[in-house]
Please model this.
Amino acid sequence: MDYGNSLRHRQRVQLAHILASVCEARGTDATGIAYNTADGIKIHKRAVAGHKLRIRLPNSVTTVMGHTRMTTQGSELQNQNNHPFAGNTPTGGFALAHNGVLHNDLLLREQQYLPDTNIETDSYIAVQLIEKEEALHLKSLQTMAEQVEGSFVFTVLDEADSLYFVRGENPMMIYHFPKRGLYVYASAKDLLDKALLRFGYLGEHPVEVKQQCGDILKLTVDGDIHRATFDDSHLFTLSYYPRLTHYYFPRPMEQSYLEELKSVAMAFGYTPEEIDELYLQGITPEEIEEYLYCGVEI
Model:
Protein backbone atom coordinates (compact mmCIF):
# COMPACT_ATOMS: atom_id res chain seq x y z
CA MET A 1 0.00 0.00 0.00
CA ASP A 2 1.83 3.08 -1.30
CA TYR A 3 -0.48 5.62 0.33
CA GLY A 4 2.25 8.26 0.20
CA ASN A 5 2.77 7.87 -3.58
CA SER A 6 6.47 7.57 -2.90
CA LEU A 7 7.18 4.84 -5.49
CA ARG A 8 7.20 5.22 -9.23
CA HIS A 9 4.87 3.00 -11.23
CA ARG A 10 7.76 0.83 -12.36
CA GLN A 11 8.85 0.35 -8.75
CA ARG A 12 5.37 -0.76 -7.67
CA VAL A 13 5.30 -3.38 -10.40
CA GLN A 14 8.82 -4.48 -9.49
CA LEU A 15 8.00 -4.79 -5.79
CA ALA A 16 4.84 -6.81 -6.51
CA HIS A 17 6.83 -9.15 -8.76
CA ILE A 18 9.59 -9.61 -6.17
CA LEU A 19 7.07 -10.39 -3.43
CA ALA A 20 5.32 -12.93 -5.66
CA SER A 21 8.64 -14.57 -6.51
CA VAL A 22 9.99 -14.70 -2.95
CA CYS A 23 6.67 -15.96 -1.57
CA GLU A 24 6.89 -19.02 -3.81
CA ALA A 25 8.24 -20.55 -0.60
CA ARG A 26 4.59 -20.64 0.48
CA GLY A 27 3.44 -22.42 -2.67
CA THR A 28 4.03 -22.62 -6.43
CA ASP A 29 0.73 -24.12 -7.62
CA ALA A 30 -0.95 -20.78 -8.38
CA THR A 31 -0.41 -17.04 -7.97
CA GLY A 32 -2.85 -14.15 -7.95
CA ILE A 33 -3.10 -10.43 -7.31
CA ALA A 34 -5.97 -8.00 -6.76
CA TYR A 35 -6.10 -4.22 -7.19
CA ASN A 36 -8.59 -1.45 -7.92
CA THR A 37 -9.39 0.15 -11.25
CA ALA A 38 -11.99 2.71 -12.32
CA ASP A 39 -14.30 -0.22 -13.04
CA GLY A 40 -13.89 -1.83 -9.63
CA ILE A 41 -11.64 -4.55 -8.27
CA LYS A 42 -9.55 -6.46 -10.78
CA ILE A 43 -8.30 -9.98 -9.99
CA HIS A 44 -5.55 -11.58 -12.05
CA LYS A 45 -4.64 -15.18 -11.15
CA ARG A 46 -3.12 -18.16 -12.91
CA ALA A 47 -1.97 -21.71 -12.09
CA VAL A 48 1.71 -20.70 -12.26
CA ALA A 49 4.50 -20.04 -9.79
CA GLY A 50 4.93 -16.46 -8.60
CA HIS A 51 7.93 -15.60 -10.76
CA LYS A 52 5.98 -16.67 -13.86
CA LEU A 53 2.95 -14.47 -13.29
CA ARG A 54 3.05 -11.48 -15.61
CA ILE A 55 2.16 -8.52 -13.40
CA ARG A 56 0.85 -5.44 -15.15
CA LEU A 57 -0.63 -2.61 -13.10
CA PRO A 58 -2.36 0.56 -14.26
CA ASN A 59 -0.46 3.72 -13.36
CA SER A 60 -3.12 4.69 -10.83
CA VAL A 61 -2.75 1.53 -8.73
CA THR A 62 -1.18 2.14 -5.32
CA THR A 63 -2.45 -0.90 -3.39
CA VAL A 64 -1.90 -4.53 -4.41
CA MET A 65 -2.95 -7.68 -2.57
CA GLY A 66 -1.28 -10.95 -3.55
CA HIS A 67 -1.28 -14.66 -2.86
CA THR A 68 0.88 -17.67 -3.74
CA ARG A 69 -0.87 -21.00 -3.39
CA MET A 70 -0.01 -24.50 -2.28
CA THR A 71 -3.07 -26.56 -3.18
CA THR A 72 -4.85 -28.33 -0.32
CA GLN A 73 -8.43 -28.40 -1.62
CA GLY A 74 -9.74 -27.67 -5.12
CA SER A 75 -7.54 -28.20 -8.16
CA GLU A 76 -5.46 -25.18 -9.14
CA LEU A 77 -6.07 -26.13 -12.79
CA GLN A 78 -9.61 -24.81 -12.32
CA ASN A 79 -8.80 -21.12 -11.96
CA GLN A 80 -11.89 -20.35 -9.91
CA ASN A 81 -10.29 -22.35 -7.08
CA ASN A 82 -7.29 -20.02 -6.86
CA HIS A 83 -6.83 -16.92 -4.71
CA PRO A 84 -7.82 -14.10 -4.48
CA PHE A 85 -11.60 -14.61 -4.58
CA ALA A 86 -14.11 -11.95 -5.56
CA GLY A 87 -16.98 -10.98 -3.28
CA ASN A 88 -19.81 -8.47 -3.45
CA THR A 89 -21.95 -6.67 -0.90
CA PRO A 90 -24.45 -3.80 -1.23
CA THR A 91 -21.67 -1.49 -0.04
CA GLY A 92 -19.21 -2.61 -2.72
CA GLY A 93 -17.00 -5.39 -3.99
CA PHE A 94 -13.94 -6.91 -2.38
CA ALA A 95 -11.19 -9.49 -2.93
CA LEU A 96 -10.14 -12.04 -0.31
CA ALA A 97 -7.10 -14.30 0.04
CA HIS A 98 -6.42 -16.91 2.72
CA ASN A 99 -3.37 -18.62 4.14
CA GLY A 100 -4.27 -21.81 6.01
CA VAL A 101 -6.85 -24.57 5.96
CA LEU A 102 -10.52 -24.45 7.04
CA HIS A 103 -12.34 -27.67 7.82
CA ASN A 104 -15.92 -26.61 8.57
CA ASP A 105 -16.71 -24.89 5.26
CA LEU A 106 -19.23 -27.49 4.08
CA LEU A 107 -20.95 -27.54 7.47
CA LEU A 108 -21.19 -23.74 7.56
CA ARG A 109 -22.62 -23.63 4.05
CA GLU A 110 -25.35 -26.00 5.18
CA GLN A 111 -26.00 -24.37 8.55
CA GLN A 112 -26.07 -20.82 7.19
CA TYR A 113 -28.11 -21.71 4.09
CA LEU A 114 -25.41 -20.34 1.83
CA PRO A 115 -25.65 -20.96 -1.92
CA ASP A 116 -23.80 -23.81 -3.57
CA THR A 117 -20.77 -22.84 -5.63
CA ASN A 118 -18.47 -24.40 -8.20
CA ILE A 119 -15.49 -23.10 -6.17
CA GLU A 120 -14.07 -26.11 -4.34
CA THR A 121 -11.55 -24.26 -2.16
CA ASP A 122 -12.37 -24.20 1.55
CA SER A 123 -11.33 -20.52 1.74
CA TYR A 124 -14.35 -19.37 -0.26
CA ILE A 125 -16.66 -19.85 2.73
CA ALA A 126 -15.11 -16.68 4.20
CA VAL A 127 -16.32 -14.71 1.16
CA GLN A 128 -19.83 -16.11 1.52
CA LEU A 129 -19.99 -15.33 5.25
CA ILE A 130 -18.98 -11.71 4.59
CA GLU A 131 -21.53 -11.43 1.80
CA LYS A 132 -24.21 -12.71 4.17
CA GLU A 133 -23.45 -9.76 6.48
CA GLU A 134 -24.16 -7.48 3.47
CA ALA A 135 -21.17 -5.25 4.21
CA LEU A 136 -17.42 -5.40 4.54
CA HIS A 137 -16.22 -3.79 7.75
CA LEU A 138 -14.48 -4.74 10.98
CA LYS A 139 -17.69 -6.15 12.49
CA SER A 140 -18.51 -8.42 9.53
CA LEU A 141 -14.94 -9.71 9.53
CA GLN A 142 -15.26 -10.42 13.25
CA THR A 143 -18.45 -12.38 12.64
CA MET A 144 -16.78 -14.39 9.89
CA ALA A 145 -13.61 -15.13 11.89
CA GLU A 146 -15.60 -16.38 14.87
CA GLN A 147 -17.42 -18.94 12.73
CA VAL A 148 -14.65 -20.54 10.67
CA GLU A 149 -12.58 -23.33 12.19
CA GLY A 150 -9.03 -24.12 11.18
CA SER A 151 -5.85 -22.17 10.55
CA PHE A 152 -5.93 -18.79 8.86
CA VAL A 153 -4.78 -15.34 8.05
CA PHE A 154 -7.20 -13.52 5.75
CA THR A 155 -6.32 -10.48 3.69
CA VAL A 156 -9.12 -8.45 2.14
CA LEU A 157 -9.06 -5.52 -0.28
CA ASP A 158 -12.11 -3.28 -0.73
CA GLU A 159 -13.03 -0.82 -3.48
CA ALA A 160 -11.82 2.12 -1.38
CA ASP A 161 -8.28 0.64 -1.40
CA SER A 162 -8.53 -0.28 2.28
CA LEU A 163 -6.58 -3.39 3.17
CA TYR A 164 -7.77 -5.67 5.98
CA PHE A 165 -5.88 -8.38 7.89
CA VAL A 166 -7.64 -11.01 10.00
CA ARG A 167 -4.98 -12.81 12.02
CA GLY A 168 -5.60 -16.36 13.19
CA GLU A 169 -2.88 -18.82 14.19
CA ASN A 170 -0.90 -18.50 10.96
CA PRO A 171 2.10 -16.16 10.67
CA MET A 172 1.96 -12.67 9.16
CA MET A 173 4.40 -9.76 9.06
CA ILE A 174 3.53 -6.15 8.13
CA TYR A 175 6.14 -3.41 7.80
CA HIS A 176 5.42 0.32 7.77
CA PHE A 177 7.70 2.92 6.21
CA PRO A 178 6.12 6.07 7.69
CA LYS A 179 8.33 8.63 5.97
CA ARG A 180 7.55 7.13 2.58
CA GLY A 181 3.93 6.36 3.34
CA LEU A 182 4.29 2.68 2.50
CA TYR A 183 3.05 -0.61 3.95
CA VAL A 184 4.48 -3.95 2.75
CA TYR A 185 3.49 -7.38 4.05
CA ALA A 186 4.16 -11.09 3.64
CA SER A 187 3.26 -14.28 5.46
CA ALA A 188 6.62 -14.54 7.25
CA LYS A 189 9.29 -12.10 8.40
CA ASP A 190 12.11 -13.90 6.59
CA LEU A 191 10.24 -13.72 3.30
CA LEU A 192 9.49 -10.03 3.72
CA ASP A 193 13.09 -9.21 4.64
CA LYS A 194 14.35 -11.17 1.66
CA ALA A 195 11.98 -9.38 -0.73
CA LEU A 196 12.91 -5.92 0.56
CA LEU A 197 16.61 -6.74 0.39
CA ARG A 198 16.16 -7.72 -3.25
CA PHE A 199 14.15 -4.57 -3.95
CA GLY A 200 16.74 -2.23 -2.46
CA TYR A 201 17.01 0.19 0.44
CA LEU A 202 13.95 2.41 0.80
CA GLY A 203 15.69 5.19 2.71
CA GLU A 204 14.45 4.26 6.18
CA HIS A 205 14.17 1.25 8.40
CA PRO A 206 10.71 -0.27 8.62
CA VAL A 207 8.51 -0.28 11.69
CA GLU A 208 6.81 -3.59 12.44
CA VAL A 209 3.04 -3.29 12.70
CA LYS A 210 2.17 -5.22 15.83
CA GLN A 211 -0.55 -7.84 15.45
CA GLN A 212 -1.35 -11.21 16.96
CA CYS A 213 -3.90 -13.99 16.83
CA GLY A 214 -7.37 -12.51 17.35
CA ASP A 215 -6.55 -9.14 15.75
CA ILE A 216 -8.31 -7.46 12.84
CA LEU A 217 -6.52 -4.55 11.17
CA LYS A 218 -7.76 -2.08 8.59
CA LEU A 219 -5.19 0.00 6.71
CA THR A 220 -6.74 3.01 4.97
CA VAL A 221 -5.54 5.09 2.04
CA ASP A 222 -4.48 7.89 4.38
CA GLY A 223 -2.17 5.47 6.20
CA ASP A 224 -4.27 5.09 9.34
CA ILE A 225 -4.68 1.78 11.15
CA HIS A 226 -8.04 0.84 12.65
CA ARG A 227 -8.15 -2.16 14.96
CA ALA A 228 -10.69 -4.64 16.26
CA THR A 229 -10.55 -8.12 17.74
CA PHE A 230 -12.43 -11.37 17.47
CA ASP A 231 -12.90 -14.19 19.95
CA ASP A 232 -10.08 -16.58 19.08
CA SER A 233 -10.64 -19.03 21.93
CA HIS A 234 -11.89 -21.69 19.50
CA LEU A 235 -8.50 -21.61 17.76
CA PHE A 236 -6.48 -22.67 20.80
CA THR A 237 -7.04 -26.38 20.89
CA LEU A 238 -4.06 -27.77 22.83
CA SER A 239 -5.10 -29.89 25.77
CA TYR A 240 -2.56 -30.95 28.36
CA TYR A 241 -2.52 -34.59 29.43
CA PRO A 242 -1.12 -34.65 33.00
CA ARG A 243 0.20 -38.21 32.92
CA LEU A 244 2.74 -37.23 30.27
CA THR A 245 4.80 -34.28 31.43
CA HIS A 246 5.31 -32.51 28.10
CA TYR A 247 3.09 -34.27 25.58
CA TYR A 248 0.14 -32.48 24.03
CA PHE A 249 -2.74 -34.03 22.13
CA PRO A 250 -4.42 -31.94 19.42
CA ARG A 251 -8.14 -31.52 19.25
CA PRO A 252 -9.80 -31.61 15.80
CA MET A 253 -8.97 -28.04 14.74
CA GLU A 254 -5.28 -28.23 15.51
CA GLN A 255 -5.20 -31.74 14.08
CA SER A 256 -6.30 -30.21 10.77
CA TYR A 257 -3.33 -27.84 10.89
CA LEU A 258 -0.96 -30.73 11.62
CA GLU A 259 -2.40 -32.87 8.84
CA GLU A 260 -1.80 -30.01 6.40
CA LEU A 261 1.84 -29.80 7.48
CA LYS A 262 2.32 -33.57 7.29
CA SER A 263 0.82 -33.65 3.80
CA VAL A 264 3.64 -31.44 2.47
CA ALA A 265 6.46 -32.60 4.76
CA MET A 266 8.01 -34.94 2.18
CA ALA A 267 8.54 -32.00 -0.18
CA PHE A 268 10.87 -30.50 2.43
CA GLY A 269 12.69 -33.73 3.23
CA TYR A 270 10.77 -34.71 6.36
CA THR A 271 8.39 -37.53 7.15
CA PRO A 272 4.93 -37.09 8.69
CA GLU A 273 6.21 -38.94 11.73
CA GLU A 274 8.91 -36.31 12.22
CA ILE A 275 6.26 -33.58 12.17
CA ASP A 276 4.38 -35.43 14.90
CA GLU A 277 7.58 -35.74 16.91
CA LEU A 278 8.25 -31.99 16.69
CA TYR A 279 4.73 -31.33 17.90
CA LEU A 280 5.12 -33.74 20.82
CA GLN A 281 8.26 -31.86 21.84
CA GLY A 282 6.08 -28.80 22.43
CA ILE A 283 6.75 -26.99 19.13
CA THR A 284 3.60 -25.28 17.85
CA PRO A 285 2.21 -25.95 14.35
CA GLU A 286 2.90 -22.31 13.47
CA GLU A 287 6.57 -22.71 14.41
CA ILE A 288 6.81 -25.97 12.46
CA GLU A 289 5.29 -24.26 9.41
CA GLU A 290 7.79 -21.39 9.59
CA TYR A 291 10.63 -23.90 9.87
CA LEU A 292 9.49 -25.86 6.82
CA TYR A 293 8.92 -22.87 4.58
CA CYS A 294 11.47 -20.41 5.85
CA GLY A 295 14.18 -22.41 7.57
CA VAL A 296 13.53 -20.62 10.86
CA GLU A 297 15.33 -22.19 13.82
CA ILE A 298 13.08 -24.08 16.25
The longest strand covers residues 92-102. The CA atoms of residues 137 and 254 lie 28 Å apart.
